[in-house]
Amino acid sequence: MSAAQAPALDSLETVAGRIRSHVVDMCAGPEGGHLGGAFSATEVLTALYFSVMNVDPERPDDPDRDRFLLSKGHAAVALYATLAERGFLPAAELATYGRPGSRLMGHPVRAVPGVELPTGSLGHGLALACGFALAHRYAGRDARSFVLLGDGELQEGSVWEAAIAAASLGLDRLVAVVDRNGLQLTGSTERIAPMEPLADRWRAFGWSVREADGHDADGLAEHLSAAPWEPGRPSVLIARTVKGHGLPFLAGRAAGHYVTLSPRNHARATAALRTTGEAAR
């Protein structure tokens, strides 16, 4: 079952709205969660799991599946919500997030169907995805490997070592997405460690580069479905996003990096999402 055969009763925008609702509910639990970065990545995950990747919830270990790694593993709540919407785990299980005995931990672990590897020690995901892409090549498989990185994570030298390796090996079935929301835990990425012009940096490392609105799920799906964009070159999509997108009281604020929503703010967030969904219709 390919991504194109995934349930298509709702638009990608509608699915993204449901994923955000799940994330808000999880972040209102006792452990809270990385809401800001989860919301900036929602459309990327929606496009991948509901339009782009060849995955099957009934066969999560299919050797011919596309692989996905959430390198910014602190946004696990968004991945769990996406996997639940896609059918990899019951949506009701999301209520156990962060609770004793739950397999839904603060960072993804292999106990969760659809999670390929534990991630979240920032800077490792791209190298791991290179390994998947190389393994597919040796096995003669046409599968693609996707990895979602945070922009603050690009301050890790291991990211650029992996970028060099991917280009030198010609891993054109490797696709990276950078969640370019411009914020990290302690503030603006450009204040802490400037990285613009980011697209030119990736090109200098031998990658094929595109940029897109990271909250346009249909546009993201179009770009990602077309990868590889150049034969013999890995692809990177710089998704321009807003941390906490969709929540007026948190959007674009570093304060939204990690939150435990109070009952009042849980209600505010739910109302904001409802309003956004009604406007979209």
From TrEMBL:
UniProt cross-references to CDD domains, sorted A to Z: TPP_TK
Gene3D superfamilies the record matches: 3.40.50.970
Keyword Transferase in record: no
Pfam families (UniProt xref): Transketolase_N
InterPro entries tied to this protein: THDP-binding, Transketolase_N
Highest taxon of source: Bacteria
Keywords: Thiamine pyrophosphate
SUPFAM superfamilies attached to this UniProt entry: Thiamin diphosphate-binding fold (THDP-binding)
Family matches, as PANTHER family: TRANSKETOLASE N-TERMINAL SECTION-RELATED
Family: Belongs to the transketolase family.
Name of the protein in question: Transketolase
Source organism (scientific name): Streptomyces roseicoloratus
